[in-house]
Amino acid sequence: MMAFRPGVKFGSSGQSLVEFALILPLIFLLVLNAVNFGGFLFAWITIANGARAGTDYMTMSTASMGQPAAPTAAQVTTLVTSDISSLMNRSSLVVRVCTNNNGTITCTGGGSQTPPADPEPSHYVLGSVDVTYTYVPFLSAWDFSKLGIHLTLPATKIHQRAVMRMLQ
């Protein structure tokens, strides 16, 4: 027979431990996905900034006096590649540099994206930089992709495009 102890209810001595054990996996999954989603947003912003920096660099041309020569597509690709150097899966980067000069489209690099049409093609050259990157999560958990269930963010392609007009 148990003796009466003040402040202790009979049959509830392990209740908090059971509740903690039940909620711990959910808290772990929440923290895991918060880290992965933060990494995804960082990669998205980095890719967008890389594409924007590439088109900014592309717009430097000889249209104004004293300006440097227009950069080549290889130089633009090198700039974008160095801009995303903080990302983990750098080998998946694909950079496509295109110009649309009065209907004549010139593209270099991988990918199949074409630049958008320019409404005033006789006054400007349209330059575009397409950057495609595959984000791989920092932390992965059990993946049941055959069943369509992902406990964490799966590997995801991020595509960003920046377009600018250049004077002829």
Q: Would you write up a description of this structure?
A:
- This protein is α+β, with helices and mostly antiparallel strands.
- The chain has one domain.
- 33% of the residues lie in helices and 25% in strands.
- A 4-stranded antiparallel beta sheet has the order 2-1-3-6, covered by helices on one side.
- Strand 1 and strand 2 form a beta hairpin.
- Helix 1 packs antiparallel against helix 2.
- The radius of gyration is 27 Å and the shape is elongated.
- The N and C termini lie far apart (97 Å).
- 19% of the residues are buried.
- The model has no long low-confidence stretch (mean pLDDT 83).
Overall spatial form:
elongated
Query: How are the strands of the largest sheet arranged?
Result: 2-1-3-6
Structural class: alpha+beta
Domain tally: 1
The helix tally amounts to: 2
Uncertain residue segments: none
The number of E-state strands comes to: 6
Average pLDDT figure: 83
- Following the backbone from N to C, one meets helices and strands in this order, namely HHEEEEEE
State the major sheet. 4 strands, antiparallel
Strand content: 25-35%
Quote the distance from N terminus to C terminus.
97 Å
Measured as a percent range, the helix fraction is: 25-40%
Any idea what the radius of gyration is?
A: 27 Å
